[in-house]
Specification:
Shape: globular
CATH topology: Collagenase (Catalytic Domain)
CATH class: Alpha Beta
Strand content: 15-25%
Strand order of the largest sheet: 4-3-5-7-6-13-12-10-11
Helix content: 10-25%
Order of helices and strands: HEEEHEEEEEEHHEEHEE
Distance between the termini: 33 Å
Largest sheet: 9 strands, mixed
Number of strands: 13
């Protein structure tokens, strides 16, 4: 989701300011009243991921598996675009991604009944994608602690029902690595980058045929090294400000999880959020395991001519 003209804008920002300009944003806990709590983050620097065995019919053989592995390596290795020269990074990153055995269990979200069975799953939906979300390219779901913001589970679903994913440089349709690197940013607790850097990997917009998000811009590298600096604790700032991605520290106060879904205005632009109570089934499940369950879905538009597509993130809180 890298960097030709995108990188040019980012590089200029890095070179012209005394410090790297920051437009990145941390995903945060949703609380009652529409406010936001702690930023979401993994508390371990060794993170597992699991590929669903079935893969996708869009790509011959199992070549998609190597692309997904490479997409994790982009973040672990701070893989910058070829024309990104100096991002003035204050630290490195010490994330390690460990692949587990292929899975045949189609389950999205944290397994509260058997936490040991929880998988951070990457799965293609060659059929059965919700028609109401046909313009969503991929969806990342995270389960987190609503007080600390600790991520307990993250899963990525690719909408191969509607979109044809490709992995080559010729005849690119919806580039898989372009999509996967962006979604892994959500997997790690990043939200969409502000409009000040429209071509960063975590920028909200993309188009079919785009390959620039296959690696990182300076803003993305700044974000991940701030959140997970080598040899140091996770990065937070108090009070949270845009200068540090609004990465709020863990909250000492408990809060009730809610459902927030980004609304769409009459002209097709994505607008504000509405809040509702957790569903009855989710409530019962939460009570059974001493937890409240909620969900949050955030959407950002990707446009290409008549096509409007979304790279999305959805978060489920557990308390």
């Amino acid at each position: 989701m890298r960097r030709s003209a995108l990188a040019v804008l980012v590089i200029v920002g890095c070179m012209c300011a005394p410090a790297v300009a920051r437009a990145f944003a941390c995903a945060r806990v949703s609380t009652t009243g529409g406010s936001e709590g702690a930023s979401l983050a993994w508390f371990s620097r060794t993170i597992t991921f699991t590929l669903f065995a079935a893969g996708t019919n869009d790509i011959a053989g199992d070549a998609e598996r190597d692309v997904l592995r490479e997409s994790f390596a982009v973040w672990a290795g701070l893989d910058l675009g070829d024309d990104v020269v100096d991002c003035q990074l204050a630290a490195g990153v010490d994330l390690t991604f460990v692949e587990t055995s292929l899975s045949t269990t189609d389950r999205i979200g944290y397994d509260f009944g058997d936490p040991a069975a929880t998988e951070n799953l990457l799965i293609f939906r060659d059929s059965g994608w919700d028609s109401a979300e046909n313009n969503v390219i991929a969806l990342t779901t995270t389960t987190y602690d609503p007080v600390s913001g600790e991520i307990l589970d993250a899963d990525i679903e690719f909408n191969s029902t509607v979109f044809d994913f490709t992995i080559t440089d010729d005849g690119v349709a919806m580039d898989l690595k372009n999509t996967a690197v962006h979604e892994i940013g959500h997997f790690l607790g990043l939200a969409h980058t502000s409009s000040a850097f429209p071509r960063a990997t975590m920028a909200a917009r993309a188009v079919p045929g785009e390959v620039e998000k296959r690696d990182l811009a300076c803003d993305d590298a700044t974000a991940i090294t701030f959140k997970y600096p080598t040899g140091s604790e996770n990065g937070y700032c108090s009070p949270p400000t845009p200068a540090c991605g609004n990465c709020a520290p863990p909250d000492a106060a408990t809060s009730e999880a809610v459902v927030r879904v980004t609304a769409q205005s009459a002209n097709g632009d994505l607008g504000g959020c509405a809040a509702t109570a957790p569903s009855w089934l989710m409530l019962v499940a939460g009570l059974a395991f001493g937890r409240w369950l909620g969900a949050e879905r955030s959407r950002r538009a990707l446009r290409s001519g008549r096509l409007q597509a979304l790279l999305s993130e959805r978060a489920t809180s557990a308390n």
